[in-house]
Every structure is written in structure tokens, then in C-alpha cells.
Write a structure and sequence with these properties.
The protein is an alpha+beta fold and 111 residues long. It has 4 helices and 3 strands; from the N terminus they run H-H-E-E-E-H-H. It has a 3-stranded antiparallel beta sheet, covered by helices on one side. It is elongated and about 65 Å long. It comes from Salix udensis.
Length: 111
Amino acid sequence: MLRQLASKRLITQRIQILPRFYHEKVIDHFNNPRNVGSFDKNDPAVGTGLVGAPACGDVMKLQIKVDDTTGEIIDARFKTFGCGSAIASSSVATEWVKGKQMEEVMTIKNT
């Protein structure tokens, strides 16, 4: 009996569940997402992208409003169905693209 208890104690001591930590900016964008919503899809200045990740079930719709004369993205909106990091990254993406030229935004990668 004593061996069984000692054995169980050793097993429980070896198993350690580590908490997951996200950067404070990720938590901030999850708790206070920026630019949530959508534009009128019939507006000719609005472009819409829809992406999904079948592995985890996340779906993101990102819309940008582009100034026709300058090519500058004047506003961005998103709607995301998914985990906290998907919501946070969608929020960050809208912040990144606003005020940039289309050519510059096309260089953004996911790495």
C-alpha cells in the first residue's frame, strides 16, 4: 500500500501543467478589439476578404475601404468567429493596414 501511494505521488509530482501566457498586447486586442464590424459590401471603395482555417474552425472576414485617388487604405473592419488569438490577430491586422498604401499592405506576411 505504501508503495502504491509513493508511486502515485511520484507520478503526480512529475506531471506539471504549465499555464499558457499571451503577450499583453494580444490580451488587450482580445479584450478590447478594434475596428469590429463591417462596411456596405456594395460600396465600390470596399474590398472584402474571407478566410478560414479548417484545422481549428476559425473564420475571418476583413474589409478595407480604399481611397480611389491615392490608393491609401482609409479604414478597415473585421468580423471573426474563432479563438482569442484569432480575434486579437484580426484586430491587429486592421490597425496595421489603416493609413498604408495597397502596395505596402501586400508585403505583410504571417511570419
